[in-house]
């Protein structure tokens, strides 16, 4: 069994639950978005709050952090862009008519999904709506983005319609209407509607180089799709509750569920190879790091599992409510909870132990491989001798 860990630091600045936690690409800052209607900027160097973004008229549902700008979306129907150095609001994106629950920044685009049944594309710099994606029959919960250049062969690209050649960007949306849709960003036209789920689509993960999209749903399944043809490739069926979160690492798919487990699947075969138990409530978030699977749960605990064996290595106790998001940087684990706190945990010990274990495993595999090579060499020599004796 795992042993309990205590937090290195507890940040209690927010006056409401934290709904999301984003890490900047350079790893220097963290951004939290809260039920109190504000976002806060934290330094990963000293774990201090260095920015307080105020202006939303309702709670913040989601946030995204770039190196120089922060983005937040809210139940007040708007999205805001902030200067991370000054805390100044640089832009307000208006147009949605209901709660904006997800945003995604890609290139010069800002994408958003809302309870108003639409997704929208905005110019990051011009504070202007570029496109509206209308066609879902219920709210848009999750987003993904890719370029057709990432997935299409040259001859396939030539077959694209002329209007789509202007921009090869595509947006993927998952909705409570049980569908996933793929849209051309340039025209707003729906390129594919992926049908198969019988429940709300809660999470998406994209593997563009392999032309695959994974979707998790309240119908208890994960489905894999070919994002070029729209064909459903596999259905992963073993969960006994809604699939809430997904993580893809080295062709291994990790899925967190309301059934209190995480499962690991081999993407290429569809085989479930591990189940991670011990959670006393839904698994709300997960993150893979250096051979360790970290999870956050509705039972207010974070956990660390050996990803290969499934053995529970550590339990992080201290939060009072559900952990909504986790991030990892410099062997520190950051957990954000609906209790309003950001907690920071030292994971150097379990990372070090895991590295030693992996080193031993690789060494053992090397010895085994060497033995196998010697054995094959010996067998080949014996085979040659037999052939010579038989005059072959």
TrEMBL record:
Superkingdom, natural source: Eukaryota
SMART domains (UniProt xref): WD40 (SM00320)
The entry's keywords: Repeat, WD repeat
WD repeats: 11-43, 93-132, 170-193, 194-235, 236-275, 316-348
Gene3D superfamilies documented for this protein: YVTN repeat-like/Quinoprotein amine dehydrogenase
Pfam families xrefs: WD40 (PF00400)
Protein name (Swiss-Prot/TrEMBL): WD repeat-containing protein 86
Gene of this entry: WDR86
């Amino acid at each position: 069994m795992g042993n309990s860990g205590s937090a290195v630091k507890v940040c209690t600045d927010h006056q409401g639950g934290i709904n999301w936690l984003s890490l900047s690409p350079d790893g220097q800052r963290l951004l939290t978005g809260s039920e109190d209607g504000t976002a806060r900027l934290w330094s990963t160097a000293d774990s201090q709050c260095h920015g307080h973004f105020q202006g939303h008229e309702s709670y913040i549902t989601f946030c995204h952090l770039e190196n120089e700008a922060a983005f937040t979306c809210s139940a007040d129907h708007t999205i805001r862009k902030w200067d991370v150095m000054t805390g100044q609001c640089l832009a307000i994106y208006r147009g949605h008519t209901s709660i904006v629950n997800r945003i995604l920044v890609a290139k010069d685009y800002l994408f958003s999904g809302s309870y108003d049944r639409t997704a929208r594309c905005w110019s990051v710099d011009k504070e202007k709506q570029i496109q509206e994606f209308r066609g879902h029959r219920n709210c848009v919960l999750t987003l993904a983005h890719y370029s057709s250049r990432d997935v299409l062969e040259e001859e396939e690209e030539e077959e694209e319609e002329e209007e789509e050649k202007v921009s090869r960007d595509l947006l993927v949306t998952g909705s409570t209407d049980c569908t996933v849709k793929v849209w051309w960003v340039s025209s707003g036209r729906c390129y594919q509607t992926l049908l198969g789920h019988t429940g709300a689509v809660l999470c998406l993960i994209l593997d563009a180089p392999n032309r695959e999209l994974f979707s998790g749903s309240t119908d208890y399944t994960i489905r894999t799709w070919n994002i070029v043809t729209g064909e459903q490739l596999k259905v992963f069926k073993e969960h006994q509750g809604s699939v809430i979160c997904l993580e893809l690492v080295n062709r291994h798919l990790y899925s967190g569920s309301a059934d209190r487990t995480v499962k690991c699947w081999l993407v290429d075969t569809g085989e479930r190879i591990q189940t991670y138990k011990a959670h006393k409530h839904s698994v709300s978030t997960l993150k893979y790091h250096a051979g360790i699977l970290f999870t956050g749960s509705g039972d207010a605990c974070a956990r660390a599992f050996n990803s290969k064996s499934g053995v529970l290595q550590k339990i992080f106790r201290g939060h009072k409510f559900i952990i909504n998001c986790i991030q990892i940087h410099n062997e520190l684990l950051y957990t954000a909870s609906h209790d309003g706190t950001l907690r920071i945990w030292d994971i150097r010990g379990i990372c070090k132990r895991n590295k030693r274990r992996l080193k031993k495993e690789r060494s053992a595999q090397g010895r085994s491989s060497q033995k196998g090579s010697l054995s094959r060499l010996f067998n080949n020599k014996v085979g040659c001798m037999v052939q010579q004796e038989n005059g072959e």
